[in-house]
Design goal:
CATH architecture of the largest domain: Roll
Order of helices and strands: EHEEEEHEEEHH
Bound molecules: fe (ii) ion
Radius of gyration: 19 Å
Number of helices: 4
Domain VOC: 5-137
Shape: globular
Largest sheet: 4 strands, mixed
Strand order of the largest sheet: 1-4-3-2
Helix content: 25-40%
Number of domains: 3
CATH topology of the largest domain: 2,3-Dihydroxybiphenyl 1,2-Dioxygenase, domain 1
Pfam families: Glyoxalase
CATH superfamily of the largest domain: 2,3-Dihydroxybiphenyl 1,2-Dioxygenase, domain 1
Protein name: VOC domain-containing protein
InterPro entries: Glyas_Bleomycin-R_OHBP_Dase, Glyas_Fos-R_dOase_dom, GlyoxalaseI/FosfomycinResist, VOC_core
């Protein structure tokens, strides 16, 4: 396997400058690079763009395109709005709690803390409407081992029944009882 890491993932944004400043202010993520052209290098289409790279830690890059000549961005109407998201790892549940408070103090709506047992998460929207998750790892080696054992069975069962297999129901037991 020669894949090293995520080089970058690219989303569309409404305003490149607003987006760069928002990620710096709210998540401490640095602006790395701007690439802008009047033509698209891969397709040669005439379509001016600003492409910004933002540091997501450890060499991972979150990228955005601002495209002034396209209609305002929308989202896939057939997919529930909690589905498509990007999750960043934070070092601890304490950092997760602190960040939640900081975001809320700035008037940002935060969902969670949600307990996924393997990690705890909060969810919120960036200025473009993209759903962002912050996740603090809480898994033990034992949990990871148990899940690894059942992953193929779960996938097989799902592919036949389209109903959630119960092998790992322990993951969200507490969250659903809350
Ligand atoms: Fe997620």
């Amino acid at each position: 396997m020669d894949i090293q890491k995520i080089h970058h993932v690219a989303y569309r944004c409404k305003d490149a400058k607003e987006t760069v400043l928002w990620y710096k202010e709210n998540l401490g993520m640095d602006f790395v690079l701007a690439i802008a052209e009047d033509r698209v290098p891969s397709t040669k289409a005439n379509d001016p763009y600003m492409h910004v790279f933002i540091d997501a830690g450890h060499g991972n890059i979150l990228a955005f395109f601002e495209l002034p000549n396209s209609p305002e961005m929308g989202f896939d109407a057939n997919t529930p709005d909690w589905v498509q998201h990007i999750a960043f790892e934070v070092p601890s549940v304490q950092v997760l709690e602190q960040t939640k408070e900081k975001l809320q103090a700035k008037g940002i709506d935060v969902v969670g803390i949600t307990n996924h047992v393997l990690f705890k998460s909060i969810y919120f929207r960036d200025p473009n409407g993209h759903r962002v998750e912050l996740a603090a790892p809480t898994a033990t080696p034992e949990m990871n081992r148990k899940l690894d054992e059942v992953k193929w069975e779960m996938l097989e069962e799902w592919s036949k029944t389209r109903r959630a297999p119960k092998h790992a129901a322990w993951l969200h037991e507490e969250e659903f009882q809350a």
